[in-house]
């Protein structure tokens, strides 16, 4: 007798099992089930160094030709691309689909000190690194004024 109601699926036999063999998908059967949904939330880290803003995006399995990096008007850095779904053969039986596929898009408003004409991007081992150099901060020139009197 299962302790989980049947609408959660009958594949899990023990409610105390912290690692179920299957996970209930509330959108199973819908045209855009969660397995086929896009992964618009591609993970991106943004750090600022004294010289630049550095963005690192995890894009495993993608080639650099499948990723687009753009700077739009208004200092918007846009990282986009698409991971194609694996071709299904007629005789294939899928047991689990966890890897995401579809289009992704991330946008970041760059600060005023970004040098938009010197943005560089590189892809290595599934990690996209976008470097946006910063303009040097000009220290205010201080001029000593002599006091008469």
In short:
The chain has no helices and seven strands.
Structure description:
This protein is mainly β and 149 residues long. It contains no helices and 7 strands. It has a 4-stranded antiparallel sheet with strand order 1-2-7-6, with no helix packed on it. The chain has a 3-stranded antiparallel sheet with strand order 3-4-5, with no helix packed on it. The protein is rod-shaped, with a radius of gyration of 25 Å. The relative contact order is 0.20.
What structural class do you assign from the helix and strand content? mainly beta
Mean of residue pLDDT values: 78
**Hey, roughly how much beta strand do the residues contain?**
25-35%
End-to-end separation: 99 Å
Q: Please state how the strands of the largest beta sheet are arranged side by side.
A: 1-2-7-6
Low-confidence stretches: 1-13, 30-39
Give a count of the beta strands, DSSP E runs of length 2 or more: 7
Largest sheet: 4 strands, antiparallel
The whole-angstrom Rg is 25 Å
The helix fraction, in percent, is: under 10%
Family: Belongs to the small heat shock protein (HSP20) family.
Protein name: Class I heat shock protein
Subcellular location: Cytoplasm
Pfam families: HSP20
């Amino acid at each position: 007798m299962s302790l989980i109601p049947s609408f959660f699926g009958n594949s899990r036999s023990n409610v105390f099992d912290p690692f179920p063999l299957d996970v209930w998908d509330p959108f199973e059967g819908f045209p855009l089930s969660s397995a086929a949904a896009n992964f618009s939330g591609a993970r991106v880290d943004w750090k600022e160094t004294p010289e630049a803003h550095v963005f690192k995006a995890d894009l495993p399995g993608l080639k650099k030709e499948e990723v687009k990096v753009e700077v739009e008007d208004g200092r918007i850095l846009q990282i986009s691309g698409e991971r194609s779904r694996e071709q299904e053969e007629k005789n294939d039986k899928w047991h689990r689909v966890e890897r995401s596929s579809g289009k992704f898009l991330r946008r970041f408003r760059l600060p005023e000190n970004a040098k938009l004409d010197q943005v560089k991007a590189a892809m290595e081992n599934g990690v996209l690194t976008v470097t946006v150099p910063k303009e040097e901060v000009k220290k205010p020139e201080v001029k000593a004024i002599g006091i008469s009197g």
